[in-house]
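Running this now, will post back.
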Amino acid sequence: MCDASPNERTDRHSLAVLLLHTLLFRNVMQPLCEYADDPNQSEELGWGRHALFSEHPRDRRHRPRNLGLPFYRRGALSYRMLTPALQRLTERAFLEGLREPEKRPLAREWEEALAVAIDELFGCWRCRQHFPYPYWEPLERRACPFCGERCQPPYPLVLELHEERQRGSFFPIRRVVLGSAFNVFADVVEPKRQPPFSRQNEPVVGYVEWDSRRRRYRLINKGQEEWMALVQGKRFPVRKEESVLVERGCLLRFGDGKRVAYVVEEEWG
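Update: finished.
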């Protein structure tokens, strides 16, 4: 699995192990079976020649029996609770790159995926833990990985951010999860930016409000720039202190040269 001596490629593996240990509260490379009668030899083989990612799709030797059960019920968290970007890096690190070191993600890739993961977090109303909202799962399977409580309606908005890379051509860059009273920060709408280490001094350009009468979310403009919204084929401006009632397929541009948000999900329940 590893080279004879530490180097940049082994550091990539060690970094991935440490990050996943921090995120999932377990070592995802922990051997869970014996490979020799001698404990020391078995340990050496389990971490070396027979090293195996605990969530390998075809080899379950090191898979915890409690995998996927709620963490507060003595479960083991799965990497599939992480954002799609972090899931892809995990697979590159431990499935593709375990024995092909050149395929292991760089530290910069992990840093970028962790930075934007903050905008996919949602809070459990029961245990108050925050976790990546699993918009990639069917509604009936969305639940808190810590206590197991099902996500309740109204479900959050899921926006797909697009950025202009060529004149008039926009490309998807990432997704943002927004619930009632969530803020839209400047780094979300400005091109070529990622969330900073702290948003304490980051300007708020908008926020989300639940309209109980219309049973829809509203995005309220708190910034100085005029937004432009496209809803059901109708195009109209959204000025400061004005709002737009969003629905699936709504397009919203946050100003000249700024990013465009596309509403990919608005399941209210």
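The mean pLDDT is 94. More later if anyone needs it.
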